[in-house]
Every structure is written in structure tokens, then in C-alpha cells.
Amino acid sequence: MIDSVKRKSEQNKVTAIAWRFYVVLAVIVLIYLGLMARAAYIQVVEPDMLKKQGDLRSLRTLANTVQRGSIVDRNGDQLAISVPVETVWADPKMIMQNNALSMTEHWQALADVLGQDVDQLTRRISKNPKKRFVYVERKVSPAMANYIHELKIPGVFLRKESKRFYPAGEISAHVVGVTDVDDKGIEGIERVYDELLTGVGGQKRFRKDAKGRKIEILSVEESRPPQDLTLSIDQRIQALAYRELKGAVAAFKARSGSVVVTNVHTGEILAMVNNPSYNPNNLANTATHRLRNRAITDVFEPGSTMKPLTVLTALEFGAAEPDTVIDTSPGWMRLGGRRVSDPRNRGELSLTDILVTSSNMGTTKLALSVPKEFLLDKFFEMGFAEDTGTGLIGESPGMLSDRSRWSKFELATLSWGHGLAISPAQLARFYSTVANGGIKRPLSILKTDKIPEGERVLSKHYTAEVLDMLEHVVNEKVSNAKVDGYRVGGKTGTTIKAVAGGYGNDYVGTFAGIAPLSRPELAVVVMINEPGGDLYHGGEIAAPVFSRVMKGALQLLNIAPDATTSAALSDADSEKQVATDSAVIKGQSNV
């Protein structure tokens, strides 16, 4: 009995041991199966997560930033440069971990040097305590950066950046433009050529160990340096033109004004200024309208500055010759019930007299003497419905209708510069075309080493005839435009500004001219918008500005005077001069 009980106890004990063994074995198998399943999940289903975690701990990228390229004028004078500055930033998480906000005196000093309110500054830091990056102040001066570094506030750091500086200030602001706080071009040349000026920074990707040592270089991307830009602008002429324009706008209480100076042979813009302008080094509280480059964006009816084109059109078609006389009597006519007239009956006028007296009757008869299509084609060929080729942002193509039906009155008004609207830059290109013998070239804001081929749109012979006529305009009618020592030709324009439904009470005074006429080099266009005084004619307000700008530009470029061979000399003096020149040339050739 005792033995059976003992055997039964031993059997139960063995059974319990076996049961426990199988339980432990099952647990071990389940653990291994779980580990295998987890490993399979990590390695097969979601391996990227661990790689990402590992990369966050060991992978680093070292960036090599490049400064923005410089912009210089044609002589190498700097118009836009990048200067080294530093940006103040904070790590809120580190600040909170180090209880740095308790350093109240240090934060007050930081706020004072940055011109900020200390309470607002600390609130920005503590608003999101887990954040790792907050801008405190962008692009501070080196002196301020050094002071902030000496404060030694835990979690406040400095980062090297660059800031754009414009030595020419408001003088060249509309051409050069500006960048935003991130050095991205937003106006002018800075915006048009932003990619070239910016370049591409390089970077090196490497892996480090737990002690911060580089153990593997993964990739190296070389930086692409930015390009410097050389503009066609001559800063000396630019400064001269801006000074004269600013003085005229103030003197005549005008709303605005523009001046464009071009090289008639290359199409290069030597000066393009507007007033009002702005300070590109400080855009705070700058009105939006001041940023507009009015020389290319604003269009106006050019008025009588278009009359030389009407004369050229008649000459080109063969409806008139340089010695043609037009009878403008009785000084007025009706076209389709509308009246065309001169201030008085001027009777018979030569083509030169038509330009000198600015006769509406004369240009009307010339315009109506050629086919409508030929007249309109000439206006389109001058580029009055297209941009000038500068590539600048916001350039207007002007307004010239290409409709098929034009009344005789509309053609008449077109002949004296109404019914179309163009920019000062477009007007400058037209006068450059006349000056260079009839070849239309695109205007360039960049310095060119090779003269563009261009397109012949006018006869060289007839443009020379019209240049002589424009000289008579200056000598006999617009003495304000004369330049001592040089032969000058040009034409005034005075128009009433168009408003919705007709014309208002505001004027635009313009003068466009060329010099020296013996060998034309420069074309200058001056536009004064909405003068507020009693003087508003182009010959009164724009011609004097033209004279001073042209004189200064010719002298700065060392262009020799040519007035000794002008038509102002008597016939005898002219013959004597020609004989003298011939003798000199003959003597030089003999030598």
C-alpha cells in the first residue's frame, strides 16, 4: 500500500516536470519565433526606418555656400556687391535645458542691441520649447555680431551670411534692382539674371562615428561659382542724368520723369534713370510705385517727336523729296467731320519747315499721300508694338493697333504722334535707328563686345536728310537744346495725357535728340510727366535737361566737338573750311 502510494507520487512528479518542460520549451520557441518575425519585419517590410534613425545619428552634410556675384558698370565701377554679415538664431530646446531665460540681463542686452522688445523676444523663444531653430535677427553687422557673441547666452548662435549693398543707391536703383532678405533677386537686373548671379553651392556628405570622427565620405558636390555681370551703363553718365532729371522734376513740380541715353551704333543703354527713385539699401516704408522702372513700363503718346517718322515715310515711299514744298493753306482741313489744324495759316512749307514749325497740317498731308498700309508698316517696323530687347522685367511693348480699318483722321493724328503709346526706351531706339543710318537694333542693358547685326528699316540717304532737318529744328526753334561745340538735332513733343473717354488736363513734355550730327554717337530722350507749373511744353521743360545731359555725356566719352563744320557757318566759311580740311588731309597723306 505504501509502495503504491509512493509510486503514484513519483509518477505525478514526473508528469509535473514534463508539463513544465513543455511549457518552458513552448515559451522559448515563441520567443524565438517572435524575434524571427520582428527581424523579418525590420529587414524586409520596414528597413528604411532603422536606416533613417541610423543616418540621423551618423550622417552629416557640410554645405559650402557661395556669395552672390557682383554687378558692375561698363567701366568696372561696382553697382551691387555682397558684404559678409551674420545672422542671429536660437535653439529653444537648448535654451530651456540650460535655463538660459533666467539670464535676464543678458537677454535685455541682446534685445537692446537688436532694437527689439525683450518680452516679445523671449516669448518667441519659449513659444515652442522643443523647436531647434528660430531666427532672432537676420544679417546684423560684424560689430553687433561680435557683441552678441560676447554675451555667451546658451542656445543663441551666429551664422555667416552675406548682404547685398548698392554703392550707387537711388541713382541706379531701377536698373540694378534689389534682392530680398534671402538674397533672391526681386527687381531689375538682380531678378532677370538671378540664377547667374546666385551660382550653386557645393556640399560634402560623410558619415561619422560616436566620437564625431569622419569615417566615410559618401559624396562631394563641387560648387559652381556665380557670375559677375557687366552692364552697358556708364555710371558717370547715369549719375549726371539722374541729377539733372531730379532737379527738373522738382523745379517743374512734375509727378515723374525719365531719361534714356543710348549708343546709336551698338544699342547699348548708357543711362536709364527715373525720378522718383528709391534707396535699394533700405526699402523700409518705400511706396510700391517708386520701384517701377518708368523708362520701360510707362507708355505715353509721343506727340510731335513722331513727325520725323512721318517725313521719313513719305521720303521712303517716294511721295516727297527733300526739296518738296507742301501747301498747308488755309491752315486747317476737315477729315470725316473732324478738324485738323495748325495754330495759324503757314502757307507753303518745306519738309524742314514742317518739322521746325511742327505743322500738323504738313504731316497730315504727307501721311495721306502714302498708302495706309505703308504708313502703318513703318510705325510697326520701328518697334512700337514690341519690347526693345533689354529683357528687363515689366517692359511694355507699347500700344499700336493693328486693326485693318483706319479713318483718314486717325491716320492724320498718327502722323503727329497720337493714337499710339510708347515708352521712353522705345522712343530712344527709334532715334538711335535714325542716327545710325536706318538700322534697327535691340537695346542692350549688358555691355556687348560684338555689335548686333540689326535690321535695315530706313534708307541711309533719307535718314541723313532728316538729321539735317532736325538740326534746323534745334537751331531755329529749340535753342534750349543746343550744346556748345556740337551739332545737335532733335524734336520736341507736348501731349495732353489720355484719360478714360478722352483727354484730361495733364501734360507730358518730351525731347528726343541726337549728337554729334557729323558722326552720330548718342541719342538722348527726356520725358517729364505731368509738370505742375505754368511751363509744360517739351521745349521748355525737357530740352534744357537734354542739353545738359548730352553735353556732359559727350565730354565724359571724349567725343570731339563738330560745331566748326555745322550749317551755322556761312557758305563762304564752309567752303573755306572744306578747302582747309582737304589741304590738311592731302598734307597728311603726303607725309
From TrEMBL:
It is found in: Cell inner membrane; Membrane. The keyword Amino-acid biosynthesis does not apply. The keyword DNA-binding does not apply. Residues 65-216 form the Penicillin-binding protein dimerisation domain. Its EC number is 3.4.16.4. The chain crosses the membrane at residues 21-41. Pathway: Cell wall biogenesis; peptidoglycan biosynthesis. It is a single-pass membrane protein. It catalyses: Preferential cleavage: (Ac)2-L-Lys-D-Ala-|-D-Ala. Also transpeptidation of peptidyl-alanyl moieties that are N-acyl substituents of D-alanine. It comes from the Bacteria. SUPFAM superfamilies: beta-lactamase/transpeptidase-like, Penicillin binding protein dimerisation domain. The active site is at S304. Belongs to the transpeptidase family. FtsI subfamily. Catalyzes cross-linking of the peptidoglycan cell wall at the division septum. This is Peptidoglycan D,D-transpeptidase FtsI. It comes from Thalassomonas actiniarum. The lineage of its organism: Bacteria, Pseudomonadati, Pseudomonadota, Gammaproteobacteria, Alteromonadales.
